[in-house]
């Protein structure tokens, strides 16, 4: 069995888990039936529980699915506190279903796997020691990786059935009204956690800041919450945006950013009222700065900016260059503070952001998207999941979701150190080449041959060399040589879903 991007899929797992292979990026217009959570009706005056130990005893049983969010990023204190109690309680065979896994969770997840506490994981991604552990066969069952929009779809369909959601928040009242904008560990939008709050059978809020009732504005509402637990400290605000929003001084990154800006401003989509999504890395932030100046020079304003939001984007909002910011996650304190003060910065949940099975996701309205890549191949397929050694070290995030924009740009260096970024075939296909329009490197750009309109528009711009992607691949190989083929066992350690729930590729166990 093969997916449409010519990747072999394991027949046994496909049948066992009732999966279909990836066929097309065109989702169509299906009629879908959503699920609903169980509701334990409460008319009480107080949902506060004395301890994590007590709430775990009341809610978590063997074989359940539990979830967490990752809005605290590397400042998260909630996950390890809860998992410590669950492991010590001897609970087994859990499915872990967080919106994503960050580095501060790795050691605890590995301990939980070794203890038999966690036997299944579904997430957007994983990195570091956990990715290495899973890549070498450490988890009993394959990880299922889903994009942010696909996770929302899977929760709404019942493919992910959350028994208990543990959601850390910087504030809550005694009945569970909470937001991400006030307290000592603010992170802004609760976009990913809103799905868990709506669909989990039991919702547990953890906070270090119990406030007066009723707490408004309420992103998570008392109608959704079963328990509120007071903890000493819910997170470290200084680590929420650590490393995510550095302003680059790297000449290579600045050159790539300048070229990305040239592609955008010479495209047919750069006009008054256009919309865009950028990332949070150094090159992406530099693009935002270049784009700001181009918008000023051309007297162009954007209708909205989307996605994970940084302060440079909210600065555009405050300057009047962007009319609205649609915010599913904040990557720094500046963006989080802006959501608290600006009525034009709208908190959105992951379904509104990117679910392919709803009545209109925000990603479907995007004109321009800038995304990164660990690898991109000569068919424009993109890998953001595994490294050149085959080890899991990334996340789908919103990559597949945002790539549905009218102009999808991949910005990446030709090589990283002694490793080629542009390759004959990516190690793992995450985003199919049909979704990608332009690759921008420091040496020049490559345009997907299917986009003849962009070839005409971008073909003769001074200082913007245009290559065939095969030529960029050969250029990269000439610099770093041809790598030794990776060796894997036959065992599948992860399944990569496309955003419609089909399987686009797999990750095999790395051979020692």
From TrEMBL:
Main localization, broad class: cytoplasm
UniProtKB keywords: Cytoplasm, Lyase, Transferase
Entry-linked Gene3D superfamilies: Glutaconate Coenzyme A-transferase
Catalytic activities: citrate + acetyl-CoA = (3S)-citryl-CoA + acetate; citrate = oxaloacetate + acetate
Gene Ontology terms describing biological process: acetyl-CoA metabolic process
One CC-aspect GO term: cytoplasm
GO molecular-function terms, A-Z: citrate (pro-3S)-lyase activity; citrate CoA-transferase activity
EC number: 2.8.3.10, 4.1.3.6
Domain of life of the organism encoding this protein: Bacteria
Subcellular location as annotated: Cytoplasm
One Pfam family per UniProt: CitF
PANTHER family documented for this protein: CITRATE LYASE ALPHA CHAIN
Protein's recorded name: Citrate lyase alpha chain
Gene this chain is encoded by: citF
């Amino acid at each position: 069995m093969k997916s449409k991007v010519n990747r072999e899929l394991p027949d046994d797992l496909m049948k066992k888990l009732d999966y279909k292979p990836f066929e097309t990026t065109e989702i169509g217009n299906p009629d879908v039936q959503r699920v609903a959570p169980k509701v334990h009706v409460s008319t009480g005056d107080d949902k506060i529980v004395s301890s994590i130990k007590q709430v775990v005893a009341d809610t978590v049983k063997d074989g359940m699915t539990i979830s967490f969010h990752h809005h605290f990023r590397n400042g998260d204190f909630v996950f390890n506190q809860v998992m410590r109690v669950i492991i010590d309680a001897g609970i087994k065979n859990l499915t872990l279903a967080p919106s994503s896994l960050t580095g501060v969770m790795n050691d605890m997840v590995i301990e939980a796997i070794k203890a038999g506490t966690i036997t299944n994981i579904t997430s957007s991604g994983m990195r570091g020691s956990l990715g290495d552990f899973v890549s070498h066969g450490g988890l009993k069952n394959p990880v299922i990786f889903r994009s942010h929009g696909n996770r929302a779809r899977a929760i709404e369909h019942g493919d992910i059935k959350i028994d208990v959601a543990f959601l850390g928040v910087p504030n809550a009242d005694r009945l569970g009204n909470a937001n991400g904008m006030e307290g000592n560990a603010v992170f802004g939008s609760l976009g990913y956690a809103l799905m868990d709050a709506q669909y989990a059978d039991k919702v547990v809020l953890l906070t270090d800041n119990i406030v007066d009732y009723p707490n408004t504005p309420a992103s998570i509402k008392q109608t959704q919450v079963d328990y509120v637990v007071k903890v000493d400290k819910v997170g470290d605000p200084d680590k929420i945006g650590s490393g995510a929003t550095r302003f680059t001084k790297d000449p290579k990154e600045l050159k790539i950013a300048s070229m990305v800006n040239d592609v955008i401003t010479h495209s047919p989509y750069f006009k008054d009222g256009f919309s865009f999504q950028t990332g949070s890395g150094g090159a992406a932030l530099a693009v935002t700065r270049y784009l700001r100046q181009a918008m000023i020079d051309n007297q162009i304003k954007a209708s909205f900016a989307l996605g994970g939001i940084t302060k440079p984007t909210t600065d555009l909002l405050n300057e009047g260059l962007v009319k609205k910011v649609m915010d599913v996650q904040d990557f720094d304190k500046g963006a989080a503070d802006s959501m608290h003060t600006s009525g034009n910065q709208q908190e959105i949940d992951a379904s509104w952001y990117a679910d392919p099975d709803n009545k209109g996701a925000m990603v479907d309205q995007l004109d321009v998207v800038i995304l990164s890549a660990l690898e991109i191949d000569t068919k424009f397929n993109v890998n953001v999941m595994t490294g050149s050694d085959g080890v899991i070290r990334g996340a789908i995030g919103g990559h597949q979701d945002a790539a549905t924009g009218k102009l999808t740009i991949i910005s990446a260096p030709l090589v990283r150190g002694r490793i080629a970024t542009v390759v004959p075939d990516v190690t793992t296909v995450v985003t199919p080449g049909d979704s990608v329009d332009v690759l921008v490197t420091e040496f020049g750009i490559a345009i997907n041959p299917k986009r003849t309109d962009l070839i005409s528009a971008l073909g003769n711009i001074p200082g913007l060399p245009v290559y065939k992607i095969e030529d960029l691949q050969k250029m990269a190989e000439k610099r770093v040589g041809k790598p030794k083929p990776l060796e894997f066992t036959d065992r599948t350690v992860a399944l990569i879903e496309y955003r419609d729930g089909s399987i686009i590729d797999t990750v095999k166990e790395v051979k020692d």
